Amino acid sequence: MTKFPHLRQDFTASLVVFLVALPLCVGVAVASGVPAELGLVTGIVGGIATGLLPGSSLQVSGPAAGLTVLVLEAVRGYGLPTLGVIVLATGLLQLGMGALKLGRWFRAISVSVVEGMLAGIGLVIIAGQLYAAAGLKAPASGTEKLAGLPRAAVDALGSAAALSSLAVGAGTIAVLVLWKRLPKRAQAVPGALAAVVLATSAALVLDLPVATVEVKGLLDSVQPPSADAFARLGHIGLLGTILAFTLIASAESLFSAAAVDRLHSGPRTDYDKELMAQGAGNAVCGLLGALPMTAVIVRSSANVRAGARTKASRVLHGVWLLLFAALLPAALALIPLPALAGILVHAGWKLIPFRGIATLWRGYRGEALIVVVTAVSIVTVSMFEGVLIGLGLSVAKAAWEASHAKLEIVDKGAGAVRAYLSGNATFLRLPKILDTLESLPQDRPVELDLRGLHHLDHACRTALETWAERHSASGTEPVKLTAA
């Protein structure tokens, strides 16, 4: 025991994380349009392979609800055999970025963009899984999903099978919401697992006409990418999808690492090594044709709160997933699909930062606008383009704020008019600056003081010098310019 002083704590924590991860791995896979076993494969790789690597010692990796929408779009657009190529390329890019020490730079991504991304993903997940909860087929786009909900509700009310399916999904959500209000002893069992077990039991006892998970077997589900799949790498759309996977998976993992670091007092995350660990895991998942992985805050926080002390807990959780997939695959076939839909509706709701948006609106309305626009763009356009729109808005806002300049006019009614320009004068602020200066009287001396400027770009300097040359009327003393 001296060699493994924390084995007891890590062993207990690993069981908790396994019970949390199991329904989520299966649910994310089904919602992504791939065999349920592939979700378990990604969880196994995230636990055993990524779990052994350095980076963050306590955060746990696996298939994430945040990538569900993107994976579903990729599978629909390029087919399941190509998913392995996308995930493999994502992993190799992450390995390269980690080797180039770019991991820490992901922390510079605007939190508003990340929150907007998660909110948009949450909305699409909720809309899509409401159809799944009723046993109906969901439309392809996010806009169609939301617009079609009233018609889907009417269709569901006219079908006994759909109502039974909805009841299972609604019951699952109710268990998840109410589970936190139970005594702490009861909460030792993860809410997601309890909800799935109760939903499965109810469906079996009442003989409800609900669809269940389709089981293919672990080895049959693993399909390494073929040469034909690699040949599609020249497709522009596929390259854009790979970039989206890389950006979102990396950002979500590193933001999760920052959040997990705040939950414990152990070693801090090395962001470059963690990015390489995620890349190695995704490369393995790609070779197995499985789902992409990220570090997942739900599993990671469960790991920390269960008392984990070292990376042994996350490795062991991967071992338990492997044993379950190998020894009890038939158990998956008993799980009702609406129960998994309920879990994902609950997960999607938690992705939407309602309190964060309200807080931003009170103090930083520009940031709140970025959250909303990013989320709406993801729902109405696509995941990749929505994130790009959010990043573009964030950069534009930063550029606008960085170019903040203050022009103060002091006019005592007699003598020279004094103008003091301070801050950062760039071409973005030039129109407003010139409007103010050109409104000054031309028949009185003007003194323009630029010594308060931190930055004066070439366009601004040229425009100010031109204004100074042309401003004064004939017979009036020329503008006096005090250079920065």
TrEMBL record:
<feature type="transmembrane region" description="Helical">
    <location>
        <begin position="368"/>
        <end position="393"/>
    </location>
</feature>
<feature type="transmembrane region" description="Helical">
    <location>
        <begin position="12"/>
        <end position="31"/>
    </location>
</feature>
<feature type="transmembrane region" description="Helical">
    <location>
        <begin position="191"/>
        <end position="213"/>
    </location>
</feature>
<feature type="transmembrane region" description="Helical">
    <location>
        <begin position="280"/>
        <end position="298"/>
    </location>
</feature>
<feature type="transmembrane region" description="Helical">
    <location>
        <begin position="112"/>
        <end position="136"/>
    </location>
</feature>
<feature type="transmembrane region" description="Helical">
    <location>
        <begin position="233"/>
        <end position="260"/>
    </location>
</feature>
<dbReference type="InterPro" id="IPR011547">
    <property type="entry name" value="SLC26A/SulP_dom"/>
</dbReference>
<keyword id="KW-1133">Transmembrane helix</keyword>
<feature type="domain" description="SLC26A/SulP transporter">
    <location>
        <begin position="7"/>
        <end position="374"/>
    </location>
</feature>
<feature type="transmembrane region" description="Helical">
    <location>
        <begin position="156"/>
        <end position="179"/>
    </location>
</feature>
<dbReference type="Pfam" id="PF00916">
    <property type="entry name" value="Sulfate_transp"/>
</dbReference>
<feature type="transmembrane region" description="Helical">
    <location>
        <begin position="318"/>
        <end position="347"/>
    </location>
</feature>
<dbReference type="InterPro" id="IPR001902">
    <property type="entry name" value="SLC26A/SulP_fam"/>
</dbReference>
<keyword id="KW-0812">Transmembrane</keyword>
<protein>
    <submittedName>
        <fullName>SulP family inorganic anion transporter</fullName>
    </submittedName>
</protein>
<keyword id="KW-0472">Membrane</keyword>
<feature type="transmembrane region" description="Helical">
    <location>
        <begin position="78"/>
        <end position="100"/>
    </location>
</feature>
